[in-house]
Every structure is written in structure tokens, then in C-alpha cells.
Amino acid sequence: MDYNSHTDIVVRVAVSLVNELTPGERRGRPFPVPVDAGAAATAGLRAVYTSYREVTASEGTELARVAARLRTVFAAVAAGDVDSAAGEVNALLEETHARPMLERHDGEPWHLHFHGRGGTMAGDWAASCATGLAIVLGSEFHDRLGVCTAPHCDRVYVDVSRNGTRRFCSTACQGRVKTAAFRARTRPE
Fold it and tell me: Side-chain half-sphere of 64: how many Cα atoms within 13 Å?
């Protein structure tokens, strides 16, 4: 399931930023607020863009605020409340003044980017991620955004599988759930 190559990448960035910069639980363990938001943001961006530059602490703090807002979009879709998800995306689009621009870089052909009016790194990523999520929410694939259903994990994902049945953020969470179910079935009574 592909939206288009740039939208796929931007939605993956949104997932990565939410998962690296928002507190909660990950794979059965508490996931606290990152001590170094710049390093966490760098890790989130490099999960998609391997050679992305180091993010400063102040940029990381701004991106953490963006990630918290993006998390509400995933949570709303997972709860079946697409209207609230769309409302939050529309608010981000309005606040960032997302504007389309054709760009060509890194040997790629011309493709569409969305930037915020202010030109800050966090503002540009907020505009891009909000636009990518708007494309997803405005399609028949809006239910492909989700929050991990494994116990003690609230990391987000985008389901790119052919049949759209993904329920976990990772194979580690899927394995934890399957192992627990197996143990429950085979436990003597």
C-alpha cells in the first residue's frame, strides 16, 4: 500500500518522531520523556533519513511538542474517531501554514514538499507530517494508522501490509503477545 513515495516517507517520519519523542510504554516497559530531546529527535529522523543532521536541543524540544500533537492523531484513529484526527491535522495545517513546493535534491526527480511559513526545522516537519497524515486520512486507508495493541506498549505505526491487519508496532510486541497466549493455553490448570 503506497500513497506516493514522498508521502510514505513523511508518514514514516511522523511515526518515528512520535515513537522517539513521546512518553508512554514500549515493548512492555515504561518509555519516559527523553532526557535529550535533540538526540531522540535525531534518532527519530535518522530512522528514515540515515544521514540527517544532528538536531539541536531546542529543535528537539520543538519537535517533541509536534510529536505529542501527532500522537493524538494516531490515538484518535485507533479509537475510531477519525473526525478528531482530522480536526487535529487541520489545526496543524492551519498553524504551520503548510504550503506545497516542488523540490529536487539528492539526485531525486522533482517531488512535492510541504513547508511551514516560519522556515524552522520543527515547523517544516510539522507541516510535512500534517500534510502526509492529511493525505492518509483523506483516503480509503485512514484506518491504517494505529497504536500498538500489545499490553504495556503504546507506540504508533502505519500499516503498509497488503491486507491491512497489522495490530502491533513491531515484531517484538507481536511475539510477546503470541508467547503469552501460548503460555496461557498450555498452562496446567
Answer: 20
Over its C-alpha atoms, the chain yields an Rg (Å, rounded) of 17
H runs (alpha helix) in 22-104:
37-46, 57-78, 82-96
Owner of C-alpha cell 512518553: 23
Q: C-alpha cell of 94?
A: 492551519
Q: What is the pLDDT of residues 31-56, one digit of tens each?
A: 999 999 999 999 999 999 999 999 99
Taking the domain 5-143, which CATH number applies? Answer: 1.10.3300.10
Rounded to two decimals, the pTM is 0.92
Residue 14 to residue 89: CA distance in whole angstroms: 12
What ranges do the domains of the chain cover?
Answer: 5-143
Give per-residue pLDDT as tens, 93-111: 999 999 988 988 878 888 8
Q: Could you give the maximum distance between any two Cα atoms of the chain, in Å? A: 64
